[in-house]
């Protein structure tokens, strides 16, 4: 059996599993609280939070599973590694547009509260969530198409894209590289505008 050279690798993986499991439980708890409360579920923001938590829970689950499988040895079946990678990138692609939409939702709620029900009614919110699901499914399908795969690297504790060179491969790599950064920066700017707006209207 192949073993890890780093003596602290096992301890780090145990911490990774515990921390990932905690995040998974917190996401599930958020979903449970949101779904059980009729008052919260009626609000579009909490529907977005529910969906984002669900996607993040899947992402956490995929990573915890990959770490648990490679806890003792850095050997994982390529097919299983590819499936976990596809699951991870699918949830990733679903989660980040939801985070961006949530930021925009909060912007409308604070700056244009009278238009909130018009822009984010129940039907439009569900359409947005369906589009997020379709985008995630599309991304996951690309990962399973054979043109590129997202594999688990047990030595660096992360998923990585294989080296295929094609439009699909380049698209997925670029999306993975810039997608999250764009969402984080844009959402931060939106929330910053909200804070400034609130401070100016105190």
TrEMBL record:
Superkingdom assignment: Eukaryota
Cellular component GO terms held in the UniProt record: membrane
Gene3D superfamilies in UniProt: Rhodopsin 7-helix transmembrane proteins
Transmembrane intervals: 12-33, 45-71, 83-105, 126-152, 182-200
Keywords (A to Z) from UniProt: Membrane, Transmembrane, Transmembrane helix
Localization per record: Membrane
All copies of domain 7TM GPCR serpentine receptor class x (Srx), residue ranges: 68-197
Main location (coarse class): membrane
GO molecular function, a single term: G protein-coupled receptor activity
SUPFAM superfamilies: Family A G protein-coupled receptor-like
Protein's recorded name: 7TM_GPCR_Srx domain-containing protein
Organism: Angiostrongylus costaricensis
């Amino acid at each position: 059996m192949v073993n890890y050279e780093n003596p602290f690798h096992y301890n780090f993986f145990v911490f990774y599993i515990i921390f990932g499991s905690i995040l998974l439980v917190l996401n599930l708890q958020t979903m449970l609280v949101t779904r059980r409360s009729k008052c919260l579920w009626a609000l579009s923001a909490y529907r977005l939070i529910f969906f984002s938590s669900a996607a993040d829970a899947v992402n956490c689950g995929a990573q915890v599973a990959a770490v648990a499988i490679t806890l003792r040895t850095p050997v994982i079946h390529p097919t299983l590694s590819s499936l976990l990678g596809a699951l991870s990138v699918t949830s990733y692609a679903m989660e980040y547009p939801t985070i961006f939409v949530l930021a925009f939702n909060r912007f409308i709620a604070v700056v244009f509260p009278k238009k909130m029900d018009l822009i984010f009614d129940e039907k439009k919110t569900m359409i947005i969530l369906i589009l997020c699901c379709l985008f995630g499914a599309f991304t996951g399908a690309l990962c399973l198409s054979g043109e590129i795969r997202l594999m688990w690297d047990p030595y660096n504790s992360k998923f990585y894209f294989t080296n295929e060179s094609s439009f699909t491969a380049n698209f997925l790599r670029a999306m993975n590289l810039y997608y999250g950064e764009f969402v984080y920066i844009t959402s931060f700017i939106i929330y910053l505008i909200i804070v400034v707006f609130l401070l100016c209207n105190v």
